[in-house]
Amino acid sequence: MVVIRLSRQGSTHHPKYRVMVADSRRPRDGKFIEIVGLYNPLASGNDKKIDLKLDRINEWISKGAQPSDTVKGLIKKAQA
Questions:
Q1: How far apart are CA 46 and CA 66, in angstroms?
Q2: Which end of the chain is flanked by fewer CB atoms within 10 Å, N or C?
């Protein structure tokens, strides 16, 4: 099954995440199909907190990809 989930990047105590499309059997930070966005929970200044390619995400969902609960929340925040 194809899933849309977060992959952790960044250093200790300064996380950044990639929103990626991957096979559910792959490890969290392993091989992926496509990067469809970025999430920086500690963004400050001019940095964007959520940067998603909503058109690509919607296309993957229409093909049957399942977003994780966290990604569903990020999509709702990005659309608002």
A1: 31
A2: C
* Three-state DSSP state, 14: strand
Neighbours of 75 (CB within 10 A): 20
**Cβ atoms < 10 Å from Cβ of 54:** 12
For 13, what's the count of Cα atoms within 13 Å in the CB-facing half-sphere? 0
Q: Label residue 73 left, alpha or beta by phi (over 0 means left) and psi (-120 to 50 means alpha).
A: alpha
Distance CA 4, CA 42 (A): 21
pLDDT at 46 exceeding the cut of 90: no
The string of pLDDT tens digits covering residues 22-39 is: 999 999 999 999 999 999
State in words which class domain 2-79 has.
Answer: alpha beta
pTM comes to 0.91
